[in-house]
Amino acid sequence: MPRINKSVILALLTVTSSVFLLFQLYYYKQYLSKDGVHNFSSLSANDAQWQVVKKFLDLVGRHNLPVYLIDPVTLGLLTPDTQQLRESDTKGPNCKYFCARREFTTFALLAKLWKYDAVLAKSAAEKGFEFLELCGKDPRLAGMDDLSGTEIPLHFIFRLQSHAVHLVVFYERSGNYLWHGPLRLKPNMDRKFVPFRKLDFGHQAGAYDRPELLLTSIDGLEIRIPKNVSRFLGEVTNSRFLECRYKEARAFYQLYPDDTSQEAMEFRKNAKTLLHLAARTLNSLGMRFWLSSGTCLGWFRQCSVIPHSKDVDLGIWIKDYRSDIIPAFQRAGLPLKHKFGKEEDSLELSFQAQDVKLDIFFFYEEEDHVWNGGTQAKSGKKFKYMFPKFTLCWTELVELKVQVPCETMDYIEANYGKSWNVPVKTWDWKSSPANVQENGVWPVGEWDDVIQVY
Ligand SMILES: *[C@@H]1O[C@H](CO)[C@@H](O)[C@H](O)[C@H]1NC(C)=O
Ligand SMILES: *[C@@H]1O[C@H](CO)[C@@H](O)[C@H](O)[C@H]1NC(C)=O
C-alpha cells in the first residue's frame, strides 16, 4: 500500500472512530507482515503511535524545545546496537520502535534550555492534541528559609486519539544533576486521559546525571537519545529522589538553635569539601555509597552537617568493594588513617583530610538484616551494628547528589534509637548506638592484618 494513502485512511478512521475497522485492519496487517515485524508501508492501528510521535516531534521542533527520548521500553529495544542503528537505519521500511502498540511514549525536556511559552498549548491544540500541564512546587527555592516554593511545570501530556506523549521536565539542581518532580493528578482530572499507573516516570521524584545526548534516526524520525543507553536505563531503575524534610528541620532548629560559631562553620566547610572529593573518588571507581551514621542523621534531622560530629560517615556494600580504593583516596590527597577488619569480615576504612576524618563502613547483607562491623584497636574487640534491610534513594546534601537509605527513619532509629531527634554531644561508638552488639575478639595472630593504624 503506498505510503501516501496512509494519512487519508487515518483521517477516515478518525472520522468514523470505528473500533471494528481498526480491529480488521490490525488483523489484516498481522496477516501481511512477516515474523510479527511491523511493516512501515502497510497501515495498521499500531501506526497511529508513530504518527503521534512524529506530530509531537514536529510540534516541539517548531517551538525549539530541547527534548530527548527517555522511554525505557523503546530505549530498551535499542540498547545493544545504538551505534549500528545510527549508521544503518535511515527511514527503514519497518517500523520497529514506535509501532509497538503502547499507550504512551516518554520524552524529557531540559528546562534550562527552554523558555516557558504558553503558545505551546495553543499550537498543540491546533495540531489536534489534547494537552495537559501538571505543575508542582519548585524545590530549588524551598529550603530552610523559604518553604513556599513557586509552582513550575513538571509534566506535560500530549494526547492524540489512542496514544499519548508524556513529556517530563528535567530541572538542573545545584549545577550538577538533573531532577524531575512527581506527577500529581488533580482530583477532578480524568484518569483515563493519563494512564497514570502505567507511566514510567512521575510516580515519585527522580534524580539523574546530566546525560550526553546523541542525535539519531529511529523509524525514520530524527531523535535525540542518551548516548549511553544502558547507563541511562540503569539510572532509571535507581532514580528515586527524596527531598530533605525542611519543615521538620526548621522545627528542630527552633528547639535547638544552630551552632554558628566560627569553628562550626569551618567544620561544615571542610566536611562539604571532603564529601565532594569522596563522591568524585568513589564515582570514578564505580562504587556506590550512601550517607551513614552521623552524616545521615544530619541530613535527615537538620538538612545539614552536624558540626560537632567531627567526621563524615559513608556506607558501601561489601559486594561493591574494590581493593584500589585505598590508592585512589591517596591520589586524591587523603591518606589512610586506619584499616580495621578485612573484606570477609567487619571491614572499615578511615581516611584523613585536613581536620575532618572520612569513615567508610562496609555493609554485609544477611537474609533478614544488614550489618557493619567495628573494631577497638587497643583490645582487638569486635562490634556489630545491625540494621533492617533498606534500599537506596538519591537526595541532596551540601549541593551534592548523594544516596541515603530510602527507609531513612528505620535506619536512623536502628542506629540512634527513638530519641534521635534530641542532640547528643557525648557519643561512644562502642556503647551509645541502639544497635551495637559485642562480637568477640580478633585472634591475636590476625591483628597485624585486621588492625592497621597509621
Ligand atoms: C511491507 O508491505 C508492503 C506493501 O504491503 C510490501 O510491498 C513489502 O514487501 C512489505 N515489506 C516487508 C519487509 O514485509
Ligand atoms: C556505558 O555505561 C556503562 C555503565 O555505566 C559502562 O559500563 C560503559 O562503559 C559505558 N559505555 C560507553 C561506550 O561509554
TrEMBL record:
Q: Which Pfam families match?
A: FKTN_N, LicD
Name the keywords, alphabetized: Membrane, Transmembrane, Transmembrane helix
Q: Which residues cross the membrane?
A: 7-28
Q: How does it sit in the membrane?
A: Single-pass membrane protein
Please provide one cellular component term from the Gene Ontology annotations of this protein.
Answer: Golgi membrane
Q: Where is the LicD/FKTN/FKRP nucleotidyltransferase domain?
A: 285-322
Localization annotation? Membrane
Tell me a GO biological process for this protein: glycoprotein metabolic process
Q: Does the keyword Membrane apply?
A: yes
Ranges of residues in domain Ribitol-5-phosphate transferase FKTN N-terminal: 1-272
Family in the record: Belongs to the LicD transferase family.
Q: What is this protein called?
A: Ribitol-5-phosphate transferase
Gene that codes for this? FKTN
